[in-house]
From TrEMBL:
PROSITE patterns: GLOBIN (PS01033)
Ranges for region Disordered: 1-37, 915-935
Protein name per UniProt: Globin domain-containing protein
Annotated Gene3D superfamilies: Globins (1.10.490.10)
Chain intervals with Basic and acidic residues compositional bias: 1-10
Organism: Patiria miniata (Bat star)
Spans through the membrane: none
Keyword Ion transport: no
A GO MF term: heme binding
């Protein structure tokens, strides 16, 4: 009960002057001392029983104790009032102790006399010491010094032991119902927190052994509260055994002696006696028999005032929520009506807010009616807390809710009804409500949340079987739904076909939709332990389905259809009555969450945008569209100015122009105009939202591929509203019009966001129409005839128009002019590979489910090379340019172009989804954050200035050290096989050259530390190449040790400090991780052996069996073609120096013999593909020998072209398929790489 100053003064004598107080009797001093102790203890009780007392109470307690130390006089009137008022505001019951203390008689019979004190519940207690001997007290207090060093672990041991040895007690604790193993139970946050609180309470008892009369009320209050939770006297014995076990387990034998153990048993007996008596008799400071956690007086006051409250529930409920949201903006997102950003006046009239407010007031009324029945009240409030937890409510929200309710009642009820006393009673009642509901929210308990643990378990068991047949179960669901609910048929395209049940069940659209619905249900099932996320998903789903015409009243039919589908599709042993009930509870939760956002909007039949809002928006647009270009320019200038992180999404955003110049940028103005025109289309279509929903979803999917995210919409809306406010007169853009625009833009936000956030579901929201498939597949027949040139044209265009992307490609870093770039073999090979990937997509367009994972994997891999979703628009433009230039207008018609754009949108969306986030949920920004600190970069780069002055010697020392300390590595190097002593090895020219090359590569890495995106592909390529030579990830520690040794030997201690050494280790760790990634096999065993995949090996080896049957003729044709197409190479061969035409040359005996030899060498390489370590030395030696003959690395590409031409013409199309051709090109790339190294 909150006390008033006047009430308090009745209990406090008038303040006396200092002189008068000093003249007080000795007995008064003793009385003051006693009062001060009681008051201080009252504060301790408040702190013990009510955490919200907090710092203020501790300060008051400290002030009292300090005064007590200085004087035995009673505290003055001001201090007492301060204490009383502070405590009353935080824990009204403690104020009863203070009142009692103020009326306490003096201790006239001496300090040892037992002092009688009447407690607020009417009982009399004596100021006696605990029923323990002085010896026991001393032993306990000494032992407690050790225990309090680790209260948490003692508490954990206590409760793990208690629950393990007494399974029936598990039901009393939320963490006990989780059925966790002892190891997991020990880590449970709730158990650890509860164990700490219990040990702290025991500590309070031990500290108060000499003031047992003040400990008794704490124990009685504790017993009364635990009785409400189901505790009974019989539980003290197992609790004592668990405590003894915990102490014995955690304390040394020297501390926890038999004598100490006996003292603990005596203390526990005293505690159990007091608490058991309270449980049996209903005694307690704060509780009378069956009174529950709220006093009888408070109940009476609350219930009496409720009669006035219930007369106007709707208005009081509305006032409550207007106040709550106005004072606590952070809570707004928990309510659909809170997200509308309405003014308080408009918010109070919002139909959803009023309905919700009334519901809440009715629930409060139910609680008020059951105040006299704790057995009903406690479960009611805990269930309410669990349900609200699912909607995102937190314990810390209760304080602002209580403040809003008190404010509303005070404002809405007459002063005669809502007196200070009544207010105090309401505050006390609300604290109990908050405590019980918060307990359910904080718990991981199975029986809290929308579903019990039993329900979750039953639902998940069913789901294991359901997910194996989602398509058929989903189809059965919708067939039943449409059959039993004909009015719903018009909501679905497949429902309008009037098909028979059998044909409907086979309909592709129905089956696809049914699968998506079942997948969504699966997401809910899998996320039942994270209700915050599930509630958000379901509310968003409700908002989207409302746009399609779904209504809350459709849920019963949907649930019936689902239950029928599951009943027919699952075994009876699995889908038991208990499981059916669990599924009913699950779907009730789904319906409740989705219905919340379905009901938002002004009327049931208007959809998400009211007629009034439509009219206001359309009327204002007629004026706005006259200035669309400037409005769009202001919009984007504002957007980029206020949101720098979004700038990178736009080419004009990367220019870093000031707002004035940015506003005049032609690209920005064109883009802004386009956006405003799109908004105009939306405005014109507001009367038929169903028509524009697909457009908005497609728009969302496209923007997602450019890097846009749902969280960007608030910034865009703010910029739009700013633009309108700036350029449109106040008479037009009134507050009402602004509100209307916000509602319209909210619909745009919700609809576009759905297609932005759904890409993890594969093809669920992104599809390709049959027409687009047909057009793209028809044009592909012409495209595939010239893949190399079209791919080359595409990449030349891409790099020419987007210089920023150049660094992503090795050929892009060469800075070649377009003509030379088009002939670059790496570019042509890469372009062809990309075109083939597009071909795979087109051929698989009839089964997106199969190719979606491939594209997602492709996106994830390209992310590691530095590709980003923002690159897709440029790639699409380059691809379309290439096709437009390479195909005739009759083939590449506008319809075909549009089809390809749609296809590429699917590619962008799908690949972009794995580029923009890791599977772990780490954002792109986080995942691309540099793993190297700025300090490490600086230290390494500074030291490199000294390293680079002596690369040759440092590299030589490094490799001598490496081979000396790691003999097993010697065979990887030609100079390692020479078995030279260290001195001679250090002077070996091959070792010195190799060491220098490695140091230069390290230098490249050091120079590129500020742009890891550029050097990661280089390091990965180096890793792949070294794998071919037999290097393995496990070799890196030895290499790092050798390098560090070399640097330590070659640099002065002033340069190569311990800090610099640590920085180098961090840098080398990144190099290790990056190179190792391309050395390791993937989990499927299908990754590359170096640069050759298992699939390529098999295709090449299979085709070679055919080729070797005619190796002589094929070899002759190969060299005839090679020399014919490359006259400058002729002089390298004796048979090439004659001017014989190709047809005659291939019959030359020398040429045929040489061709046969080359084909045999190729055969040796093919046979050794499964053990590259063996053939690498052979190929390197071959490269060295050919270098002597004048062969150069640049000769390989013409040779490969000749080989491919010969095989293509010499083998049948069934034998030399495009896949086989690609595999051979990959093999040749590796052969050329290894031999080229031998040449160098």
């Amino acid at each position: 009960m909150a006390m008033q100053a006047n009430d308090h003064r009745r209990n406090v004598p008038r303040a006396m002057g200092d002189n008068q107080r000093r003249q007080g009797s000795h007995s008064q001093g003793k009385q003051g001392s006693r009062q001060t102790k009681v008051l201080a203890k009252g504060v301790d009780i408040a702190i013990q029983t009510e955490q919200t007392a907090g710092l203020l109470l501790r300060r008051v307690s400290s002030r009292i104790r300090q005064r007590h130390k200085k004087s035995l006089e009673p505290p003055d009137r001001t201090l007492l009032f301060d204490l009383n008022r502070s405590v009353a505001l935080n824990h009204s019951r403690v104020s009863q102790y203070i009142e009692q203390a103020l009326d306490m008689p003096g201790e006239h019979n001496g300090s040892n006399a037992a002092h009688k004190m009447m407690l607020p519940n009417g009982s009399i207690v004596s100021s006696v010491e605990a029923p323990l001997s002085d010896r026991d007290k001393k032993l306990l207090q000494g032992c407690w010094k050790e225990v309090q060093k680790d209260l948490i672990e003692f508490g954990v041991d206590l409760f793990v032991r208690l629950l393990e040895e007494n399974p029936p007690l598990r039901e009393l604790f939320p963490f006990g119902k989780l059925n966790l193993s002892p190891e997991k139970l020990r880590q449970n946050a709730d158990l650890r927190s509860h164990g700490l609180r219990v040990m702290e309470t025991i500590g309070t008892a031990i500290e108060g052994l000499n003031e047992w009369d003040l400990i008794v009320p704490i124990l009685e209050d504790l017993a009364a509260r635990h009785k409400v939770y189901g505790a009974v006297p019989q539980h003290f014995n197992p609790l004592e055994q668990a405590l003894t076990y915990s102490l014995g387990n955690g304390l040394p034998p020297k501390v926890f002696t038999n004598e100490v153990q006996g003292a603990w048993l005596n203390l526990w007996k005293a505690i159990a006696t007091v608490m058991s008596d309270t449980m049996r008799e209903g005694r307690g400071v704060f509780e009378k028999h069956d009174e529950g956690p709220i006093s009888a007086r408070d109940k009476r006051l609350v219930q009496a005032s409720w009669r006035s409250v219930e007369k106007d529930l709707a208005n009081l409920g509305a006032g409550l929520f207007v106040r709550l949201l106005e004072k606590n903006p952070a809570i707004k997102n928990l309510f659909p009506f809170g997200k509308l950003n309405l003014s308080p006046e408009n918010l109070k009239d919002n139909a959803d807010l009023r309905a919700h407010g009334k519901n809440v007031m009715e629930t409060i009324g139910t609680a008020v009616e059951t105040l006299d029945n704790p057995g009903k009240l406690v479960p009611l409030l805990k269930d309410l807390g669990a349900r609200h937890n699912a909607y995102g409510t937190k314990p810390e929200h209760f304080k602002p809710l209580a403040e809003a309710l008190i404010f509303t009642l005070k404002d809405g009820l007459p002063p005669k009804v809502f007196t200070a006393e009544v207010q105090g009673a309401w505050e006390n009642a609300l604290k109990v409500v908050a405590e019980l509901m918060s307990e359910a929210m904080r718990s991981d308990d199975a029986d809290v949340g929308p579903l019990s643990q039993r329900d979750k378990r039953l639902v998940r068991e069913c789901w294991k079987v359901i997910q194996k047949d989602m398509v058929n179960l989903g189809a059965a669901l919708f067939v039943r739904l449409l059959e039993k609910s004909p009015p719903i048929q018009n909501l679905f395209t497949f429902g309008k076909l009037n098909l028979s049940a059998e044909k409907l069940k086979r309909n592709k659209d129905l089956r696809s939709h049914g699968q998506r619905v079942m997948s969504t249900i699966g997401a809910v099932v899998m996320g039942l332990d994270d209700p915050d996320i599930i509630a958000t998903i379901l509310e968003d789903l409700g908002a989207r389905h409302q746009m399609y015409g779904a209504k809350p009243e459709h849920f019963p039919a949907l649930v019936e259809a689902l239950m029928r589908s599951l009943k027919n599709g699952l075994p009876p042993k699995l889908f038991t009555p208990e499981a059916q009930e669990a599924w009913q509870n699950l779907m009730k939760m789904v319906a409740t969450s989705m219905s919340k956002t379905m009901r938002s909007g002004s009327s049931e039949d208007e959809g998400p945008i009211s007629s009034k809002n439509k009219r206001l928006v359309q009327a204002s647009w007629k004026i706005m569209e006259k200035d669309a270009v400037n409005l769009g320019a202001v919009l984007f200038a504002r957007l980029l100015e206020k949101n720098p992180s979004i700038q990178k999404l736009f080419p004009f955003g990367k220019l870093n122009l000031p707002p004035d110049k940015l506003r005049q940028n032609p690209d920005l103005r064109a883009h802004g105009k386009g956006v405003m025109e799109t908004i105009g289309i939306l405005v014109a279509s507001l009367d038929d939202l169903k028509d524009i929903v697909p457009t908005l979803k497609e728009l969302g999917a496209r923007h997602n591929s450019y890097g846009a995210k749902p969280e960007h919409f608030p910034a865009l809306v703010e910029a739009f509203m700013f633009s309108m406010k700036t350029r449109v007169s106040a008479e037009v853009f009134t507050a009402e019009v602004q509100e209307a625009w916000r509602n319209v833009l909210k619909v745009v936000d919700v609809t576009m966001s759905t297609s932005m956030s759904s890409h993890s579901n594969g093809a669920s929201d992104v599809t390709i129409s049959p027409k687009d498939k047909q057009l793209a597949q028809g044009s592909w027949k012409f495209i595939q005839k010239d893949l190399v040139n079209l791919g080359a044209s595409m990449f030349v265009r891409l790099l020419e128009k987007n210089p920023g992307i150049r660094k992503t490609f090795s050929f892009g870093r060469l800075n070649l002019p377009p003509d030379k770039l088009r002939q670059n073999p790496d570019l042509r090979a890469h372009g062809k590979g990309v075109m083939l990937t597009f071909g795979t997509l087109v051929s698989g367009a009839d089964d997106l489910g199969k190719i979606i994972p491939m594209m997602e994997d492709l996106g994830a891999r390209h992310k590691t090379y530095g590709a980003k979703p923002a690159h897709f628009p440029a790639i699409v433009e380059a691809f379309m340019y290439s096709l437009k230039k390479g195909l005739s207008p009759k083939i590449f018609t506008p319809d075909v172009q549009e089809a390809w754009r749609n296809i590429l949108s699917v590619v962008a969306v799908t690949m972009g989804s794995t580029m923009s986030s890791d599977e772990s949920g780490v954002s792109e920004e986080e995942s691309t954050a540099s793993p190297i600190s700025p300090k490490d970069k600086q230290l390494v780069q500074n030291s490199w200035k000294f390293v680079q002055k002596d690369l040759v010697n440092l590299g030589a020392v490094m490799f001598v050290r490496l081979l000396e300390k790691n003999p097993s590595v010697q065979n990887l190097f030609s100079f390692g096989k020479l078995n030279l002593p260290p001195e001679k090895l250090k002077q070996n020219p091959d070792l010195r050259a190799h060491g220098k090359g490695v140091m230069e590569t390290i230098g490249t890495a050091v120079a590129g530390l500020d742009d890891l995106g550029r050097i990661v592909p280089i390091l990965e390529e180096v890793g792949a190449r070294h794998k071919i030579y037999g290097a393995r990830p496990e070799h890196f520690p030895a290499v790092v040790e050798a390098l560090m040794y070399s640097l330590k030997q070659g640099l002065s201690p002033n340069v190569f400090t311990s800090e610099t050494q640590e920085a180098w280790r961090n840098i080398l760790k990144v190099v290790d991780v990056t190179m190792s990634r391309t050395m390791r096999l993937d989990e499927n065993g299908n990754s590359e052996e170096g640069l050759i995949s298992l699939r390529d090996k098999r295709l090449v080896q299979k085709s070679w069996k055919v080729m070797q049957k005619d190796s002589v003729n094929l070899g002759a044709a190969l060299f005839a073609r090679f020399l014919d197409r490359n006259p400058s190479i002729r002089e390298l061969f004796p048979f090439g120096k004659s001017s014989v035409p190709p047809q005659m040359l291939k019959h030359n005996s020398d040429l045929r013999a040489h061709g046969k030899g080359v084909m045999e060498t190729i055969g040796t390489a093919v046979d050794g593909l499964d053990d590259l370590g063996k053939i690498v030395p052979i190929l390197k030696d071959l490269g060295t020998r050919h270098n002597v003959y004048g062969a150069k690395p640049e000769h390989f590409q013409p040779l490969v072209d000749a080989f491919m031409y010969t095989m293509r013409n010499g083998l049948s199309s069934k034998e030399f398929t495009p896949d086989v051709q690609d595999a051979w090109e990959n093999i040749w790339k590796v052969l050329a790489e290894v031999m080229s190294n031998g040449m160098e």
